[in-house]
User: What shape does this take?
Amino acid sequence: MSWQPSASFELIKLRAQTLKKIRHFFDDQGVLEVDTPVLSYSTIPDPFIESFQTRYLPLTQIMQNDNYYLHTSPEFPMKRLLASGSGSIYQIAKVFRQGEISAYHNPEFTLLEWYREDWDHHRLMQEVNCLLRGLLSPLIDLTNTVFISYQRVFQEQLGINPHTVSKSELIACAKKQGLADVLNEQEDNDLFLELLFSHIIQPCLGSKDSAGQKSTANKPYLCFLYHYPASQASLAKISTENDCLVAERFEIFINGIELGNGFHELNNTQEQKARFEEDNYNRKVAGQAEIPLDERFLNSLNYLPQCAGVAVGIDRLLMVMSQAKHINEVIAFPFDRA
Assistant: This one.
C-alpha cells in the first residue's frame, strides 16, 4: 500500500547501522561532525545540476532576496567553516536535485561529505577506500581496490587519449561504438567523452578490469578513477600530468555504480568565480535560468586551507551493500511516497 515504506525494516535497520559505523569511523579519526543549512540564497551554477527553488514570504520585514534554493550538497557552507578554522569536518545531509528519478536516483537523497585539512586527493582516496571497504567487506566479497587514471582507462578501452583527442576522432569513436547520432556533431568534446564514458567505460568499472575483462575470481572491487580532463574540474585544482592539464579529482565506482566524487579543493576566489561565470554563460546558452553567485562562499575561498573533500551517496552505498536493484528498496519513503 502506498502509505507504507518501500524499504523493508531489515534495510531500514541496515541504514541505521551504517550511519552509526560512519560516525564511529570519523570519531576515531578526530573528524568533527557539523550541521549546515539546507536552504540558501544561492546554489551551484553547474548546467548539469538543477536545484529545487523556493521562496521566502516575509510577514513584516522586507528581504532583499526572496528566492532560495535547497542545497544539492553541503559543500559551500562546509568550506566556509574550513576557511574559518574548523579543521577536518564531515556531515551526513539530506540533499536535493531536480529531474533525477531512476533506479539509482531519487530527488531527495542522503549524502556523506567530508573534508581533510592539509590532504590532497591521493591521500583522501586511501581514506575513502578504508571507510568503504570497512562497510562493504562484511557483506560483499571484494577483491583488491583499483586506482586508475581517466586517461589510462580511455586508452585501454577505446584507444584514445581523452586529453588530446580531436572532435573528429571522438565522432568516429562514437560511431564505432554504436553511438552515432546520439549527439549533435557540434557538441563539445566533454559531452562526447561523457557519452563514451557512461555507455562503454562506466559499466565495467568495479566489475571488470580496464580492458573490459572480468575481475579476478569474478568478484566486485572498488575502482577509483582520477585525473579527469581540466575542463571537468568543477571545484578542483588543476595540475599537469604527462604534459596535459588534469583536474585533481576522482570518482569511486563498484559494479558500474558511481558512489562518490572527490576533489583536491580549489582555494582561489578569482579562479572559482571565473568558472561559475562560465557555467552561468553555458546555462544561458542552453536556455536555463542563471544562478546568483554565492559571494559568501567565493569570498571564503582565499582563506580556505589546503584540503581535499569527497561526497559519497549513502543510498547507493546501501544498494551495493544489500544488492538492491532499485533505490526505492533502501529509502523508507521515496519521492512517489513522500
Q: What stands out?
A: The first strand starts at residue 32 and ends at 33.
